[in-house]
Specification:
The protein has 381 residues and is α/β, with parallel strands linked by helices. The chain has a single domain, classed as ATPase, nucleotide binding domain (Nucleotidyltransferase, domain 5). The protein has ten helices and 14 strands. A five-stranded mixed β-sheet has the order 3-2-1-8-9. Helix 1 packs across helix 2, helix 3 packs across helix 8 and helix 8 packs across helix 9. It is globular, with a radius of gyration of 31 Å. About 2% of the residues have low confidence.
Amino acid sequence: MAVGLGLSIGTVNTVSALAEEGSAKAPPGRRSAAERSPAVTRRTTLTFDSTGMARVGMIPRHGRAITEFADLSQRKTKQARVGHRALSAADLIAVVADCLITEARRDHRAVGAGVMLTHPAGYTEGQLGDLRAALDAIGLTHVALVAEPVAAATWLEVERGPLMPGLALVYDLGGASLDITLVRVGAGCPHNPIVGSPIRSTEFGGRAFGALVAARAANGTVPASISGAITGATADELRTIHIRSSLNLVYRCLRMADVTMADVDCVLVVGGAARPVEVAQVLAGELARPVITAPDPERTIADGAAIMARRAAAADEETTGHQHRRKPRRARTRALLLSRRTKRRLTRVAIAAGMSAAGVVLALALPADSVVAGLSQLGLR
C-alpha cells in the first residue's frame, strides 16, 4: 500500500502529514477529524545536543535554539555552527526534513513512504538549487520538492474535486507572511500550474497582526493605511481591517497575471493564521467568489504534499510490479522456445536415423524421461 509523507517547514511552524492509500476514498469534505490522516505540528526550531544530534520543535531552558532560518528568500538568512560544521539556512532546513522523516518512519505505516517537501512559490532557481544540494548532501535524494500553492491545490482537488478547468487563488496567511498565488486547477492543467508571479508580504500574517494588536493596546504607532479605523476596535474588528488591507496585494497579483477576479473560480485560504472566521468572511464579502477553508488550514499544504507523495509512490510501485511480472513471462517464453528448438533438433536426428515421422511424433508426446531412454536405445544420445 502506497504511503506519502508531506513536509511543510515554515518560518514559525512545521507540519508533517501522512497520506495513505485509503485516505482519499471517503466522499469529498465528509471525513471527520478522526478519519483524516495523521499530522504533527511543531515550532520551527532546531537544537543540537553535545553529540550533534538534532531535535525539532524544542525550546531548551539552557542553551540556544536556532530559529528564523526556514525562508531562503530573506536577505539575511540564519547560519549555525555545529561542532566543526558551518550549516547554511538550506542545510538547516534539510536537517529538519531528515528529523521529520526519521520520526515518521518509527511508525510502521511510514516505512517506504514517498516524501514531498514544500517551499514558497517565489523561490529562485538558485535558492531551489541550494535546497536540493543540501538535501542530497545528507542522503535525502529521494525527497521531492513542490511549491506550496501547488500542494494546496492538490488538497483542493482531492477534497472538493473533480474540479472543472479554471483558476484558484491561494491565499496563504502564515505566521510570518502572506503569500498570494494563482494556480490552474482541473483536468489538463500543465506541469507548472502557477499563473503569473506569486506575491509575498511580511506586512500581513500572525506576527504582523500581533504587532497591530500590541500597538493598539499601547496606543502606539500603527500603519497609516488603517490608523484612522482602529479607535475603539476589538481584536476581531482589527483582524477584519487587517485582512481587508491585504486586498491590494490580491489585486496586484491578478494584474500581474493579466486576469480579473471574474476569471477566478474560487479562493483557497490556507495557513496557520487563517483559522479565525473573519479571514474567510472578509475575503468572501470583498472578492465575491467562493472561499474554501480546510478544517485545519495550517496543515492544508502538508496534506496536499502528502497526497502528491503517495501518488508518486503508487506510480513507482506499479512500475516495479510490471517489471517483476515481465521477468517470469520472459523466462517462460524462453523456456518454451528452447523446448520447441530441442524438439526440432530431435526430430531431424531421429528421421536421419531411419525413424518414421509418426514414430517421432509419438516419441515426443511421451514424458521427457521416456524420450531420453528411447533415444539412448537408438544410439542417438
